[in-house]
Amino acid sequence: MGFLGLAFPVLLVLLFFTALIWLFIRRKTGLLLLLVIVAGSKHISVLFAWNKTNPFVQQKQQGTVRILSWNVKNFDTHDLARDSTNSLRHKMLNYINAQQADIMCFQDFAEFSNNLLPSNISYLKDSLHYTYHYFADDYKSYPPWGPAYAGIALFSKYPLSHIERVMYPGKRIPESIIVADITIHNQLRRLVVTHLQSMHLKQLKPLDKEPWDDNQDSSIIYSDNRFNKLKFFLPYHAEQSEVVRKVIDESPYPVIFSADMNEVPGSYAYYHIRGNLKDVFLEKGFGLGRTYYAISPTLRIDHLFVSPSINVVQYKKDDIYMSDHYPQVLDVEW
Length: 334
Known about the structure:
Layout: H1 2-25, H2 27-39, H3 41-47, E1 49-50, E2 64-71, H4 88-99, E3 103-112, H5 120-127, E4 132-141, E5 148-156, E6 160-166, E7 177-184, E8 187-195, H6 218-223, H7 226-249, E9 255-260, H8 268-274, E10 278-279, H9 280-284, E11 286-287, E12 302-306, E13 312-317, E14 328-333
């Protein structure tokens, strides 16, 4: 079903035009094909959003809280040696500052323990005044310039409490789940931030310089074809979704969920994690909502869900080519 979910937008268009053609050839066959489309209305309903596209108002309304969610692709760590005011990292940080978010949820966040390289945490904390933060350093490496860390991160201008880091089972170098409570305007809500296992679909050539470790399935991650990667990782996403669902179900407070799920709408992981939560894009977005610029124009794999009691005021997705994912910003009543 995961394979069909990825191809669903294309299959839907093909089926629709096939049905139209058969209406002129054999009416009963055409009607039967249209009936099949109607039977798939549940999946169609999460594929497109048809909301009126009002311009995003940069000035926050009173009684609202702004949330930024973004896979930042390690802030372009490959270019850190030439870090300057014109670097991609600085452009990303300037964009982040311009959004004036109260809460920021990051995937593929990078940090370094070396005075020669810039500290992303220090900049966000000291220069942009996100005093409260938690960084889950799930990936650790030791390049020549010093220790490097990557994972998911949560930053806030309001105090965070009861912070918990939930680990996924297995040995497939997964990122974890950050769970934190936050009180604003005397209302307590729970933030859940995560990143389901990356499938490395863009990488189609063997990487001889990568460390080969059977326990980490690196032969699949770094050098296999897309079909085998999907076959390998989609069931693992289903396992991870069980862990996320348990975290959400155990929350005594309304939930705000942010993730790079690496899963399209209509997939098992999407439906299982979302449950009765509201999909912010379906509430306030328009079109297909692509969040990942490579491979296919239909890939909405970064998701924001909120509890039914939380009112979404406005939402936007900026198609900027800084990371391989597009940032999403939403305002909610608080």
